[in-house]
Write a sequence for this structure.
């Protein structure tokens, strides 16, 4: 009898395991297929690389995609990810190429990494990149009044921090073009924690230790200062979040949105179906990301229609 019961239990467990494996297989078959996208400058867009600042440890550059057609265009600064320690400009190029096709000047900054200079060097370089964009607005057809920022992962942290510290002089850094403001009018944060202290008070991150020079217990004030959520206040730009369904929880995002909404500042979160952490680098999610970004930035970076010289200037 015992042998019979044992056999029945084993059979039941085997049936359940087979059913679970079948369900997982069906779910995997129905999931979007990861397809890496490679850079390819589109027709009608010119790509150039330009120097923003030179330091002994690294020359800060920006890759600029500029529409060839005459006009003045809103601009987007992209801040790449890579855990603050690896340079991933190439991976972000396809996304920014597509946005350039849609009527934006797109700019990708190669900031100093944690192995080259500690925080706030990376933020300083991103701020300097925005100021460079304004200083060179005429040359690159940039509408200097309409600049936005976006970034993913570590770049999402820096994008959020740049946006939330808009207008705060103590965060400008010592980079060039100090006669220009580094303010942005809209921000997209992709897959990035916004409260570094809450996320790592009891769980040290080797990437952040390299970035700051210590862990959260050793440097709580720095972790707090470098958290975008700390600086939410009246006057910061509309900020939306894009996340992958298969990614981990981004600590501080929901709480930051609560603070933004309480101030009447537009915010939203978009969760992409079956998307992994670096979703903006591959299909089908790069296309979904571009659609969201295009709509959001055109809403907040477009000039109102004006009349002059007998012609009406249309929305960009």
């Amino acid at each position: 009898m015992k042998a019979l019961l044992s056999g029945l239990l084993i059979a039941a467990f085997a049936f359940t395991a087979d059913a679970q494996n079948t369900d997982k297989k069906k779910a995997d078959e129905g999931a979007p297929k990861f397809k890496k996208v490679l850079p390819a400058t589109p027709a009608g867009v010119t790509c150039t690389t330009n120097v923003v600042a030179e330091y002994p440890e690294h020359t800060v550059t920006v890759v600029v995609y500029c529409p060839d057609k005459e006009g003045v265009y809103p601009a987007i600064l992209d801040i790449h990810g890579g855990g603050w320690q690896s340079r991933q400009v190439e991976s972000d190029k396809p996304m920014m190429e597509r946005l350039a096709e849609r009527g934006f000047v797109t700019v990708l900054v190669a900031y100093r990494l944690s192995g080259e200079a500690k925080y706030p060097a990376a933020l300083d370089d991103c701020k300097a990149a925005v100021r460079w964009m304004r200083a060179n607005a005429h040359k690159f057809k940039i509408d200097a009044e309409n600049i936005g920022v976006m970034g993913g992962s570590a770049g999402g942290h820096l994008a959020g921090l740049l946006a939330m510290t808009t207008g705060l002089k103590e965060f400008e850094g010592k980079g060039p073009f100090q006669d220009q403001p580094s303010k942005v009018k809209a921000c997209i944060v992709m897959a990035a924690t916004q409260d570094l202290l809450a996320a790592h008070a009891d769980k040290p991150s080797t990437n952040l230790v390299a970035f700051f020079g210590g862990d959260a217990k050793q440097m709580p004030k720095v972790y707090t200062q470098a958290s975008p959520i700390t600086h939410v206040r009246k006057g910061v730009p509309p900020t939306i979040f894009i996340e992958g369904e298969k990614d981990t929880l981004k600590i501080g995002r929901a709480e930051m949105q609560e603070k933004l909404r309480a101030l009447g500042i537009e915010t939203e979160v978009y969760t992409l179906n079956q998307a992994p952490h670096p979703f903006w680098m591959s299909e089908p999610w790069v296309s979904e990301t571009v659609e969201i970004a295009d709509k959001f930035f055109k809403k907040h970076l477009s000039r109102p229609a004006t009349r002059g010289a007998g012609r009406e200037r249309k929305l960009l």
Q: What stands out?
A: The chain has a mean pLDDT of 90. The longest strand covers residues 142-152. The chain is about 35% helix and 20% strand.
